[in-house]
Write a structure and sequence with these properties.
The protein has twelve helices and no strands. The chain is mostly helical.
């Protein structure tokens, strides 16, 4: 006779499904949700459409309205100085920022021996000089730096007997002091990019026989550049906008010419609409170029 406990065991065993090893259970794959046309309302870059409409409106006014075409013709003369100052100062800032960023990324430590101790002590002095430069220039307004350099520092050099081959109110002055100002900002950008590279790669390069400067040049800096390209692109666009500060040096850039024209006929709205259109054309073109460069680098990494 089968006991009551055994009968319960038989009933529980009958309720448990038997899965054959040859036929494993398959999890059903979720079907992708269909994309409705309404989704493209959220994906469409409406900001580009807005700038395109405004740009077409201003271009049509410049082409049809004699007043707008005259303003554009007179103001566009300053584009050359704006681009010259922007590219020159940014190239200088890149060189300064890369050098100071590398110095600040590797604080010196006490060296061994007389030669090693002397070299590291000199590195310590350089490290603190670079730090002073970065902290002062990052905390000083760019307009103040330009005015100080053009009307105080360069005249003081001439009084001390130093021959300066250009005037204080010149393109060279604007490039030098804008480059010094942005070099301090780019220093921190490069330092962040360098420190983002894993230290194990630097140690691996040294284990292969590379010297410190070789591992930094061939291993660390190329990887850091891929990281810092977006902020470098943003800083270049900011450089184009901040180049308008050279109007303090009486240079005939886009902003200075707009100020002169609007001051002569008191037509501030139309004149500065043309000025804004010129600056936006340059900055939006620069931002699109930076995005294309980022996408190209991501494609190469794949």
């Amino acid at each position: 006779m089968v006991s009551e406990v055994d009968s319960k065991r038989f009933r529980l065993a009958e309720d448990v499904p038997i899965v054959s090893p040859a036929q494993p259970s398959v999890t059903p794959v979720a079907k992708p949700r269909p994309v409705t046309p309404f989704v493209y309302v959220y994906r469409f870059p409406w900001w580009i459409l807005f700038f395109a409409v405004v740009g077409v409106f201003i271009v049509l006014n410049i082409a049809v309205d004699p007043k707008y075409s005259e303003y554009f013709r007179r103001i566009s003369v300053g584009i050359n100085i704006t681009l010259q100052v922007s590219f020159g100062a940014y190239a200088m800032a890149l060189a300064i920022g890369l050098f100071t960023g590398v110095v600040r990324s590797y604080p010196p430590k006490p060296g061994q021996g007389i030669i090693g101790g002397t070299i590291n002590f000199l590195r310590l002095i350089l490290y603190h000089l670079v730090t002073i430069y970065v902290e002062i220039l990052r905390g000083m307004p760019i307009a103040t730096l330009l005015v100080f350099g053009a009307f105080a520092f360069l005249p003081a050099l001439r009084q001390a007997g130093v021959e300066v081959p250009f005037r204080g109110t010149s393109v060279e002055t604007a490039i030098i002091f804008l480059g010094l100002a942005y070099g301090a900002f780019l220093s921190e950008v490069f330092r962040a990019g360098i420190q983002s590279v894993p230290k194990g790669q630097l140690e691996a390069a040294r284990s292969l026989g590379m010297k410190s400067y070789q591992s930094i040049i061939y291993i660390v800096i190329p990887q850091a550049f891929k990281v810092v390209i977006p902020p470098l692109g943003n800083d270049f666009i900011a450089m184009i906008k901040d180049s308008s500060l050279v109007m303090l040096l009486a240079l005939n850039d886009v902003s200075q010419l707009g100020k002169k024209i609007s001051g002569s006929n008191f037509d501030y709205v139309d004149v500065y609409l043309v000025v804004a259109f010129i600056y936006l054309s340059m900055t939006i073109t620069g931002s699109l170029f930076v995005k294309l460069l980022e996408q190209r680098l991501k494609t190469k990494e794949r």
